C-alpha cells in the first residue's frame, strides 16, 4: 500500500514539475509576443468565418442543383419501390423491365 502511495506522489510531483516548467517558459516568452506585428497576422476568426461561409454556399448550391435537376423515369421508379423489389432475381427483373 505504501508503495502505491509513494508511486502516486511521484507521478503527481512529475506532473507539477512539468506544469511549472511550462508556466516558466510562457512567462519568459510573453515579452517577445509584444514585438509581433499584428497587422501581418491574419486573425483566425476571419479565416474560420470564410471557410464556414464557403461551406454554406457550397451546401446551398448543391441543394438547389439537386432540386432543379430533372430525374429520369427510372430513377423516380427506383426511389418509389421498396428495397425488396430491387433485389428480385434476374428473370423477374427482366419481366418487370419489359412490362414498363
What features would you describe in this structure?
The chain has helices spanning 2-33, 44-68, 73-80, 83-86, 90-99. The chain is mainly α and 100 residues long. It is elongated. It starts with a helix and ends with a helix.
Keyphrases for this structure?
100 residues; mainly alpha; 5 helices; 0% strand; elongated
Mean pLDDT: 77
Low-confidence blocks of residues = none
Give the fraction of residues assigned to helices: over 70%
Structural class: mainly alpha
Bulk shape: elongated
Instruction: Estimate what percentage of residues fall within beta strands.
Output: under 5%
Individual helix count: 5
The H-and-E topology, N to C, reads as HHHHH
Query: In this structure, how is the largest beta sheet organized?
Result: none
The overall strand count is: 0
Over the alpha carbons, how many angstroms does the gyration radius reach? 32 Å
User: Distance between the terminal alpha carbons, to the nearest Å?
Assistant: 81 Å
Write the layout of secondary structure elements.
Layout: H1 2-33, H2 44-68, H3 73-80, H4 83-86, H5 90-99
Overview in brief:
The chain is an all-alpha fold and 100 residues long. The protein is built from 5 helices and no strands.
Amino acid at each position: 500500500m505504501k508503495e502505491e502511495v509513494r508511486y502516486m506522489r511521484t507521478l503527481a510531483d512529475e506532473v507539477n514539475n512539468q506544469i511549472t516548467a511550462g508556466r516558466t517558459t510562457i512567462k519568459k516568452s510573453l515579452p517577445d509576443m509584444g514585438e509581433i506585428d499584428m497587422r501581418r497576422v491574419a486573425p483566425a476568426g476571419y479565416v474560420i468565418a470564410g471557410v464556414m461561409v464557403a461551406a454554406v454556399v457550397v451546401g446551398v448550391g448543391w441543394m438547389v442543383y439537386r432540386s432543379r435537376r430533372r430525374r429520369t423515369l427510372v430513377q423516380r421508379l427506383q426511389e418509389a419501390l421498396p428495397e425488396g423489389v430491387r433485389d428480385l432475381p434476374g428473370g423477374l427483373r427482366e419481366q418487370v423491365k419489359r412490362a414498363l
